[in-house]
């Protein structure tokens, strides 16, 4: 059905009506500007002292994305990958996406890593088998306990704090086979769902800016919790 702008404007009037004239470059009233910038944002920063505003991420250059394939969603990335490979999912929660990886990519081996395996076992979507192994523990430590160059694909979706993503990424770079992919979920600077910054963009962009990694895949997500996959730049 075609998009009807007039109908949409009426139905969403409460969201789309401007609250005031454009001031300070924003369509907000002076009161809103004061409340947000002078009261709520400093208060939020103070309360979330563990999540200070993060520095700006490094920019990509054209060469970093020239071989990037763009996908509608993360399941399309899975459909594009080779079957029968060795996987790790770092942060698996209830195993919903692990189930999809297993069904779509038919791994020869998949390690599911999480600080707590209770949700995974309770949901029962995935069970330990000859090809599926559960690992309880810190994500980076669990990855580091595996042999170097073990994995074809590593999917990182555990803690999204900068320090944790950086540790997971560093461990993953050691455990990935040459030619493998590290796929990062939630490639976004700030989670509107949790109202806190994510470290994923900073870590991914730093890896790419180092010149060792290029962007292989990018997948959209309706709320822009996108996926991005990196591979080593060939020698
Ligand atoms: C967003 S959920 C994973 C969702 C799953 N990848 C999916 O798409 O269905 C994040 C998971 O990471 C786990 N986690 C968070 N911090 C962790 C850490 N430091 N080490 C291991 N697991 C961690 C949480 O317990 C949680 O189950």
What does this protein structure show overall?
The structure is a single chain. It contains ten helices and ten strands. It has 235 residues and is of the alpha/beta class. It has two domains: 30 residues, no CATH class; 171 residues, 3-Layer(aba) Sandwich (Rossmann fold). Strands 1-9-10-6-5-2-3-4 form an eight-stranded mixed sheet. Helix 9 packs across helix 10. The longest helix has 18 residues. It is globular, with a radius of gyration of 21 Å. The termini are far apart. The mean pLDDT is 90. The structure holds S-adenosylmethionine (SAM). The site of S-adenosylmethionine has 15 residues, from helix 6. S-adenosylmethionine binds next to helix 6.
Give the tags.
single chain; 235 residues; alpha/beta; Rossmann fold; two-stranded antiparallel ribbon; 10 helices; 10 strands
Present the secondary structure layout.
Layout: H1 5-11, H2 13-16, H3 30-47, H4 62-65, E1 69-71, H5 74-80, E2 86-90, H6 96-105, E3 109-114, H7 118-123, E4 132-136, H8 139-144, E5 151-156, H9 162-175, E6 176-187, E7 190-191, E8 196-197, H10 200-209, E9 213-219, E10 226-232
Helix pairs in contact: 9-10
The structure holds S-adenosylmethionine.
S-adenosylmethionine is lined by residues 89, 91-93, 96-97, 114-116, 138-139, 157-159, 164.
